[in-house]
Fold this protein.
Amino acid sequence: MFGHIIANADALTDEERQRYESIYCGLCDKLREKFGVYARMLLSYDLTFVIILLSSLYDAEEKNELKRCPVHPAKKKLRTTTAYTDYAADMTVALAYFKAIDDWQDDKKKSKLRLANKLKPFYNEIKARYPRQCLAMEKELEQINHFENKDTSNPDGGANAFGRLLAEIFITSDDYWNYDLYRIGYGLGRYIYLADASIDLQDDIKNGCYNPLLILNKQPEEMRPFLTILLGEASASFEALPLEKDIGILKSIIYTGIWIKYNQGIEKQKNPKDNKESE
Amino acid sequence: MVTDPHKVLGVPPGASQDEIKKAYRKKAKEYHPDLHPNDPEAAKKMNEINEAYDMLMNPEKHRSRQEQQRRYQGYGQGQGQWQQGPGGWYTYYGDIDFEDIFGGRQTFNANPKHEPSDSPEVSSAVDLINSGRYNDALRILQTVSDDKRNARWFYLNSLCHYGLGNMVQAIDFIEKAYREDPDNQTYKILLQNFKQYGHTYTNNSQGYNTRVLGLGKLCCRCAFLYCLCRNPYFCLFC
């Protein structure tokens, strides 16, 4: 789920890279402040993208602080927070809560159940603040479960559900930009679900698990044109938004960084495949 | 209703997209809601600026977008409230029309016609697709025997999935139809239309490497020294 929406550092200037990290650090700090020290483990670049996109679109005010961080003792680090950092922290924990439940249901690992129970009271607070997004998570995760376990004949089902889930997270208020923000979230969400499925194909075959690529009868690399089309929709809406601030970072995510995890996953599956007997 | 978007944004006719975006940002700063709380005039002006922006950036899509906007937001239209369905606001977006998402039916024809060679099942499917009953059409198409599953069968399946928002299957089926019958213009055009967003992406990503494998500059090449905050860009010693 996480790790796709990330920048390609080679496409960033040094200044952009530092800025990207300062927003990431800001989110880390906000997670600790709101949800405790261990919440820092939930930190992701994916939600950092949401902060940057929304802060740029809405011209949000920023706060910058130079502080020491226990994880980087060498020198003080810059932390940048905006109003959307708070929102992203809430969404991070809500998503982590559902991921823990999902993992517990899949693998029955006690550690995941413990995590879910720990996050539950936080989730309830977040749900009171953001009922729409949380209800979307509940509904769409149930849908994903349905397409992965009950009606397994529809390879688009899970992708569309995850797309809708992410789309709701990209919308924070009732305004003019909702249509484009929805399409960005929807495109990215569908991409993420199918990119994950592409990466997991060999493991899923080995473990006898559901995978949409098996229904489509496609190899992971063959998904690339489909994934490009799904990102194309997100890109069309992204280009329609009047984004100026941090546009370099945003583009390095949408047009190159987004492919890193998928490309790595394909590479990994290519090599063992050549040596294996066909399954 | 904005009649002169160039005037509203203060840009000359023929301004580039970047100039339009810059002009928008400048105007938006003047009328930012935080600077004018509870000011209906400022809110009205902001809406004009937004509309002018949309008219200039997306002239072809502006009209269909206006229709979609009316459905997805109430800002400045006197509605202001999201639908309170079961589960709060969620139902407002959850019932989105997928054809609109892809700007489907407004930009190309996805309505199949009857053909003399159609079997009764295929004929029913065509009628069902034209009535928007895609799941029913799919069910009927499933009853067609394997030996009769030709290019047209793939084409009709594609239209069903497109109607349902199942883009991966829609594309997959039309590709199969096109492979079976590459001379068919209808299949060719539909496939091109589906692939249009892929071309958009390829154009927009010119200069960016979509085959990138690494995360870029890693401090001291210490790829394995992931610090506790799981930041792959710098290790503990930065």
User: Anything to note?
Assistant: The two ends of chain B are 54 Å apart (CA to CA). Chain B touches chain A through 78 residues (CB under 8 Å). DSSP finds twelve helices and no strands in chain B.
